[in-house]
């Protein structure tokens, strides 16, 4: 359990407390079937000591983003009343690509415990928005749409849940619709991604593009660590592709 304990505490700041910390604690308790009672007791005591030592901390670390992803992903996956294996596989594959095998295995082990707990999306999002930048919160929404789309069919309940989470995270309607459009094929999606309508002028298209480049530039997420830049680059590429599509359509 030592490697798991080291991973769990190394990169955590604000998520050691509050509703996210409670979900983590619950997940650790669910390991009782996998580990012996002595190891479980030591892990829970170690976790509690870290919570007490960092109580009141508002520092955001790489692990905080990771834990926030796990908790919010568990909420979205359960929103349609079932847990689809393809969605679980997507979570695992994303963590493998971001964190490598050992860290991903630890994260998914924790996730399987978290997904068993009923969690208040509102309370979790309040905790996140108090400690996480707007750019990081946008990235969370991007990841959640990726999970919902993993089974090739996004249910209305999943969309409603992500929209509710976005609202709790103080993500406005334009940003939400922009990210959502990145996961759908529709004639006006390029415009939605740039947060404009087809009626705007070419100069307005260019202005919107520059604004979105600034908003979604991967450098805004560098404080979360290199492991989280893959998703940021995907989002940024969606902006580039949308702009190129509009330019080609208009002959700009």
From TrEMBL:
It holds the Pfam family DnaJ. SMART domains: DnaJ. Signal peptide: none annotated. InterPro entries: DjlA_DnaK_co-chaperone, DjlA_N, DnaJ_domain, J_dom_sf, TerB-like. It comes from the Bacteria. SUPFAM superfamilies: Chaperone J-domain, TerB-like. Residues 189-251 form the J domain. PANTHER family: CO-CHAPERONE PROTEIN DJLA (PTHR24074). This is TerB family tellurite resistance protein. It comes from Polaribacter marinivivus.
């Amino acid at each position: 359990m030592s490697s798991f304990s080291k991973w769990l505490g190394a990169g955590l700041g604000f998520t050691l407390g509050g509703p996210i910390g409670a979900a983590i604690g619950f997940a650790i308790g669910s390991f009782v079937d996998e580990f012996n009672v002595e190891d479980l007791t030591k892990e829970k005591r170690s976790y509690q000591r870290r919570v007490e030592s960092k109580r009141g901390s508002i520092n955001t670390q790489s692990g905080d983003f990771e834990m926030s992803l796990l908790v919010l992903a568990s909420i979205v996956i359960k929103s349609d009343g079932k847990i689809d294996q393809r969605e679980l596989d997507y979570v695992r594959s994303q963590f493998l690509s971001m964190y490598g095998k050992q860290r991903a295995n630890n994260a998914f082990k924790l996730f399987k415990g978290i997904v068993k707990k009923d969690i208040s999306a509102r309370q979790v999002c309040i905790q996140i928005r108090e400690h996480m930048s707007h750019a990081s919160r946008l990235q969370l929404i991007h990841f959640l749409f990726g999970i919902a789309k993993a089974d090739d069919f996004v249910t209305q309940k999943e969309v409603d849940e992500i929209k509710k989470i976005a609202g709790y995270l103080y993500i406005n309607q334009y940003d939400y619709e922009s990210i959502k459009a990145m996961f759908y094929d529709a004639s006006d999606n390029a415009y939605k991604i740039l947060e404009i309508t087809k009626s705007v002028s070419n100069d307005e298209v260019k202005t919107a593009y520059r604004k979105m480049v600034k908003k979604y530039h991967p450098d805004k997420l560098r404080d979360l660590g290199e492991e989280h830049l893959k998703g940021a680059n995907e989002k940024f590429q969606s902006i580039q592709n949308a702009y190129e599509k509009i330019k080609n359509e208009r002959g700009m």
